[in-house]
Amino acid sequence: MTIALSQFNEVRLDRVSREFGALNALRDVSLTIQRREFIALLGPSGCGKSTTLNCIAGLLPVTGGAIWLDKNRIDTLRPEERGFGMVFQNYALFPHLNVRQNIGFGLKMRGIPRAEIDRKVNEALSLVHLHGQENKLPGQLSGGQQQRVAIARAIVIEPPLVLMDEPLSNLDAKLRLEMRAEIRRIHNELGATTIYVTHDQDEALSLADRIVVLRDGVVRQVGTPKELYEGPAHLDVADFMGFRNRLKGNVVAVENGRALLDVEGMRISGVARETLSVGSIAYAAIRPDDLVLGEAGGNALQVRVDTIEYRGREFVGTAHSEGGLDFVFRAHQPVELGSTVHLQADDQRVLVFAEPIKGRK
Amino acid sequence: MEAIASTAHVDHGPNLRQRLAAKGFDAVTLLVVPAAIFSLLLFVYPFAFGFILSFEPKSGGWLANYQRFFSDSYFYDTIANTLGLSVPVTLLNLLLAVPVSFRVRLMRRQRLLTTILVLPITLGTVLVAEGLLNYLGPQGWFNRTLITLGFIDQPLRLVHNYWGVFASLVITGFPFTFLLTLSYVTGIDPALEQAAATLGANAWQRFFHVYLPLLMPGFAITFCLSFVQAFSVFPSAVLLGEPAGSTRVISIAAYQAAFEEYDYSMASSVAMIMGFVQLAIVVLVLASRGLFYRGPASGAKG
């Protein structure tokens, strides 16, 4: 393997801001990316994740703050001077160039001798398993193959940083899983440093070493997939991490990091994830997996079953309470529609969050 | 026997209407008829009429008109005169349209600017020619300003010669060229340029390695359409040029044959030669498109 990525110690975003109009603005995004890390920027559309990536790539100027590559300030450099490899959502392959020319484009622009370009392109081709396709035009390739060309083209220039902007969103479900594994394999084989933008939490959880959750241009939480999955810091992060049940209630008691909520007259106890005061409004967040059929009593809610779906090993049902709260729960056996049941959650698995501040949910 | 005959008939399968529909002919196809009649009456018939007329000279054999055209420099020079005007004008328009389109592509108020640029088309050649006659004339603003500023002592001769016609063709031809160019330039996915930039290509490299190859087929079409317009120049060649000399273009020769000599046959021959020269250039340019990539200019299927 002679594709040797240029090395560095860290990329640092220092209070990076980007304003254009009021939309997609970034506000004081600070982030340090270590060498060889795989970082996922996760968030709903319009949260600023692509904007962040474009600012790092140099395709959008930042309006505040700075970006550093070790000791060098790079946010003032043009994209062609930064030398980061970027994979675009629609691949952005040059339609008039064949696979070999597409991959070799960056090397050609650098004035590297023909023989060396050929050698490096060959390596990149074998890295992404594309041998035999090198003389085809992008239009003759399948989506997955185009994706591989885009990746090969970005890494063959040996960039210190590989940027990927929702690279899998145009592929079908099966191919997406395949390419996900491929991307991680290539990252590992090259010892690359990758920043990966996605709105799919499964992708982020399975690929990344660390996940950065963005919302409305603000970093909400940074952590390993495990940290985020088990301990989301805010309600919106929890939303993204699969806590589909959010029960609004009043705080009755707070003690030892635990909170007791009154939800429509029912008592729900859980782990307090934010500072809560008695009497204020709070939300209990529960994953469908942790909400199961049970008995009346501790941490149980009485609901009426609306739908029940077969999911192979188990059933997933939806239900509503008398007060109109919606629930998604898991069951091991089918439940009769319209019946009244009790749903129970282990109080270690219930997370309690303060009410989000308006305009910054 | 009868039974067999009727089964054989059934075996024919779908009826005529279905078979035609399978080949793409159905009732909707009839909508082509008005256009076909229109083009038959107003293009095919006059063209064929003129073509045949051109081989029926007033005197001499059936090729006499063509022999006359190519043996008399007063006639055959018009081809060079017309090409000498239309080719440089078209190239200049295209050369100007490209950078302007690249700039306008990024603008928010594209509509306004496009409207301003397109205005000369609506004014008509004659109005522009009359305006230029005054503006570029010896007593016009242009010369007076240059004299006042001390750049020149004598007024430049800018009208009643090659350059007068040239200027008018640029003014009336540019908007058309620009609009076509703009549509081709905006048709290219901006992500391609961004990709090239992240791969280390500077602005010039991005233009030459990404934009230009993708735009060449569009430029070829633009060149052809603009060229054909410029080639048939007539009013400005008469009003702003020297119609007896350097700007005696081929359409003037046709006009004179028809309305000064009343030799319609000769005029038809000139028109046929004019058409042939245009066609030759257009075919040449379009054929060269084959050297370039001609597929969609966005990032493939996506």
Structure description:
Chain A has helices at residues 49-57, 79-82, 99-109, 114-127, 143-155, 173-190, 201-207, 225-230, 235-240, and strands at 10-20, 23-34, 38-42, 64-69, 72-73, 85-87, 162-165, 194-198, 210-215, 218-223, 245-255, 258-263, 266-272, 281-286, 292-294, 300-310, 315-320, 326-331, 340-344, 351-354. With 361 residues, chain A is an alpha+beta fold. In chain A, the strands form 4 sheets. Chain A has a 6-stranded mixed sheet with strand order 6-7-8-3-9-10, with helices on both faces. In chain A, strand 17 (315-320) and strand 18 (326-331) form a beta hairpin. In chain A, helix 3 (99-109) crosses helix 4 and helix 3 (99-109) runs parallel beside helix 5 (143-155). Chain A starts with 9 loop residues before the first strand and ends in a 7-residue tail after the last strand. The model of chain A has no long low-confidence stretch (mean pLDDT 89). With 302 residues, chain B is mainly α. Helices cover 71% and strands 0% of the residues of chain B. Chain B has 14 helices and no strands. The longest helix of chain B is centred in the N-terminal third of the chain and has 32 residues, at 73-104. Chain B is flat, with a radius of gyration of 26 Å. The termini of chain B are far apart. The relative contact order of chain B is 0.12. Chains A and B meet through helix 2, helix 3 and helix 5 of A and helix 10 and helix 11 of B.
Task: Indicate the multimeric state.
Answer: heterodimer
Tell me the fraction of residues in β-strands of chain A, as a range.
Answer: 25-35%
Mean pLDDT of chain A: 89
Strand composition percent of chain B:
under 5%
Q: Which spans of chain B of ≥5 residues are poorly predicted at pLDDT below 50? A: 1-8
The biggest sheet of chain A amounts to: 6 strands, mixed
Given helix and strand content, the structural type of chain A is alpha+beta
Order of helices and strands of chain B: HHHHHHHHHHHHHH
Q: Give helix and strand order of chain A, one letter per element, not per position.
A: EEEHEEHEHHHEHEHEEHHEEEEEEEEEE
Average pLDDT of chain B, to the nearest integer? Answer: 87
Percent helix range of chain A: 10-25%
Structural Rg of chain A: 24 Å
N- and C-termini, Cα separation of chain A: 47 Å
Q: Helical element count of chain A? A: 9
User: What's the main sheet of chain B like?
Assistant: none
Largest protein interface?
A: A-B, 35 and 27 residues
Strand order of the largest sheet of chain A: 6-7-8-3-9-10
